[in-house]
Known about the structure:
Number of strands: 16
Helix content: 25-40%
Order of helices and strands: EHEHEHHEEHEEEEHEEHEHEHHHEEE
Number of helices: 11
Structural class: alpha/beta
Radius of gyration: 21 Å
Bound molecules: flavin-adenine dinucleotide
CATH class of the largest domain: Alpha Beta
Amino acid sequence: MYRYLTEFNTNNLPFEKIDTIIVGAGLSGLTVAKYLVKLGIKPLIITKKEIGISNSFLAQGGIATAIGKDDSPELHFLDTVKAGKGICIENNVISMVETGLEEVINLINEGLEFDKDCKGNLKLTKEGAHSRSRILHIKDKTGYYMTKFLFNQIKNKIYLITGYFIDEILTDENRFIGVVICNKSLRKVIYAKSLVLASGGYSPIYLRNTSAYKIGGDIIGNAFRAGIYLKDMEFIQFHPTALYIENQPAYLLTEALRGEGAVLVDEKGKRFIDELKPRDEVAKAIYKKYLNGEKVYLDLSPIVKKGISIKERYPTVYKLLKTYGLENQINKVPVSPAAHFSMGGIEATSYGRTSVDGIFAVGEV
Ligand SMILES: Cc1cc2nc3c(=O)[nH]c(=O)nc-3n(C[C@H](O)[C@H](O)[C@H](O)COP(=O)(O)OP(=O)(O)OC[C@H]3O[C@@H](n4cnc5c(N)ncnc54)[C@H](O)[C@@H]3O)c2cc1C
């Protein structure tokens, strides 16, 4: 294999020098940028699309946090490890449930407003595999509001380049030195002390996926050619309920719908699975139905019976249903699983270190 996929000569390309490069402006890249700014560093964020296009922006259901009165990080840990069926790295789970909670509390103290009830208490929804209601949300546009909030906090304190791909990662004896970036007409080199890969997952390699990108996971190829170790690439999460209309994209129907009471039914209108089991189990049960030539539907009517308005509580879902003329057929929304989240990817320590000096990986990548 050639070390580089593309042909270039760095001596002939325009170049810049910077302290730290972050690839990606989703929640993970923006969070790293926020902490670098606190350390007095002005990082450069590079994204292949404009800021508003990322999976972080699309996140609907909300963020799992053990913040409820009946909850604790210990319970969140136990639920996660149980759903992981023996393959979780437990120290990483501890770090996720503890620092995740701290981070959410920081954001609330900084002014991020999650949905509250009429008494001013945070509203928490249930999702699959969680023994407590612990999903904080902002309607069904949680990622949109969180990403915007973070970006506004740092937008004047960073350098930003949008519309550029990472062409190649440059190394010298297993040490990062820079990147070659390109758009349709320009190619240039940026040298830096360190590189943070926050470029999201690779679920778009599957035809049916819920991702914001048509092409995704390209950084995995860059990383591999640069000698960065990859791990568990076969671990992909399939979300059970993406809209299923032939030749149409697999738009997500958030799990929070099932958390609020929506049920899965077969062609005869019969339930066939506990909808709040872990996603792999629910997705497999639906897939089995399709293998038998049957279709599966999400019935949202129990939510409406609880007095919750789909239009108010789930504006993204409502808009989607309306687009496909399904808003008056909420008891029979066709669904099937779709690739949703990459659990494998770049191998990194819990501090984000990769196998190449000076290169870090955070978030879904
Ligand atoms: C529809 C949908 C709904 C979801 N809902 C939830 C939810 O409710 N709760 C939850 O916890 N999780 C949810 N997830 C998962 C979650 O949103 C993602 O795992 C998370 O946002 C990933 O964040 P990230 O910062 O790692 O990557 P992303 O948000 O995907 O950002 C990646 C960034 O990298 C840039 N990039 C990628 N490749 C390149 C390249 N080659 N060159 C330059 N830039 C590049 C992109 O332009 C983008 O800015 C959802 C995912 C989807 C798809």
